[in-house]
Amino acid sequence: MVKRIWTVMQKEFIQTWRDKSTLLLLLSLPMLQLFLFGYAVHMHVDHIPTVVADQSRDFASRAYVDGMVASGYFDVLLYVSNQAEVSDVIDAGDAQAGIVIPPNFAARREQGDAQVLFLVDGSDLYTSQSAYNAATAIAETHATQILLERFERSGQMAGERSFLSLDTMVRILYNPNLTDLWFVIPGMCAMILQTQTIALTAAAVVREREVGTMEQLLVTPIRPIELMLGKIVPNIVVAIINMLTVLAMGALVFGVPFRGSFWLFVWLALVYIFSGLGLGLLISTVSRNQQQAQQLNMALALVGLLLGGFMFPREVMPVGLRLVGNLFPLTYFIPISRGIITKGVGIEFLWEQVVALLVYVVLVMGLAVRVFRRRLD
């Protein structure tokens, strides 16, 4: 058995090494994806282009605008006269946020009924969320400062906080500065492994059928499971190299900390790689040609990316979509990757995902072997 598997492995290694352009692309693509995510993709947006309609033009309105600019989230590019002009500037795409301050802002602020209209371009999700959160926080800070000034003028001690019903202290664990890449890199490692493992093996069996070598393999004493194992081992090597490349670049280039056990991550990643390779073999056995295999691979990769928890939290998804997401190994490995890399937790906190991944490997490999036998018959 070992000799037969080794023979197929040698054949696959020779084919992989001969196609050096494809091999180079497979090894360089993760680095390119990481650079794109690292330098181009940011969910935390600041220095948002802003237009201001200050109809009050007093010390209070200037202080409010200065506070927005000092936060670093907003850059005032233009001053206009009214709300309609603010909307026109946002419609033209010259600004993504607008501030409309009504007349007599200082007097209304003293009376306690001052209002400011804040307009945000909702066509850009991340920008609108950052602008909304920043504007809300700045407004609350500004209102608290006004309240403190009133208490000072009324003779009460500025440091006395008895009038405040709640004082909340917020501490963000694992990622105190809310750095995007500390969140993206662990999920991206899982995404790259799934995408490449499925793609590497999706055309494995169907390629043999198209070039006419499947008949030669059928006359040998090799078994279906041995043929599949021999085909996936070279792909495992490529996937491991890519995984180590992403982790090394994340730590050395982008400064993402690795807090957990490296060897635990490697062993669980191997299980995850087997699940992706098994899914790719299943695609390969049910496909009639390489084009169909590529189309199925792209469709499954896209659905898995959307429902696996890489881009959107699964907790807010409907039950039906969460069940569909359970059909992809990415769903189980993302919590493992983020738990080990970002949190530094051990297997005692991840055993549910590990068990689910092991069951997935057994089921998908068994199904792939069974379907392959039927195709041979």
Strand content: 5-15%
As for the number of domains, it is: 2
- Helices and strands, in order, run as HHEHEHEHEHHHHHHHHHH
Widest sheet, order of strands: 2-1-3-4
Structural class: mainly alpha
Radius of gyration (CA) equals: 28 Å
Helical run tally: 15
| β-strand number | 4
Q: Outline, from the CA principal axes? A: elongated
Instruction: Characterize the largest beta sheet: strand count, sense, and whether it forms a barrel.
Output: 4 strands, mixed
Residue share in helices? Answer: 55-70%
Mean of the pLDDT scores? 80
Low confidence ranges = 157-164
N-end to C-end Cα span = 22 Å
Topology:
Elements: H1 2-18, H2 20-40, E1 48-54, H3 59-70, E2 74-79, H4 83-91, E3 97-101, H5 105-111, E4 117-120, H6 125-153, H7 180-202, H8 204-211, H9 214-218, H10 224-252, H11 262-286, H12 290-307, H13 319-325, H14 330-343, H15 351-376
Parallel strand pairs: 1-2, 1-3
Antiparallel strand pairs: 3-4
Helix pairs in contact: 1-10, 2-7, 2-10, 7-10, 7-11, 7-12, 7-14, 10-11, 11-12, 11-14, 11-15, 12-13, 14-15
Can I get a quick summary?
The chain is mainly alpha-helical. It has helices at residues 2-18, 20-40, 59-70, 83-91, 105-111, 125-153, 180-202, 204-211, 214-218, 224-252, 262-286, 290-307, 319-325, 330-343, 351-376, and strands at 48-54, 74-79, 97-101, 117-120.
Structure, described:
By secondary structure, the protein is mostly helical. The chain has two domains: 16-41 and 178-376, no CATH class; 48-153, abc type-2 transporter like domain (abc type-2 transporter like fold). The protein is 66% helix and 6% strand. It has 15 helices and four strands. It has helices at residues 2-18, 20-40, 59-70, 83-91, 105-111, 125-153, 180-202, 204-211, 214-218, 224-252, 262-286, 290-307, 319-325, 330-343, 351-376, and strands spanning 48-54, 74-79, 97-101, 117-120. Strands 2-1-3-4 form a four-stranded mixed β-sheet, sandwiched between helices. The longest helix has 29 residues, at 125-153. It is elongated and about 95 Å long.
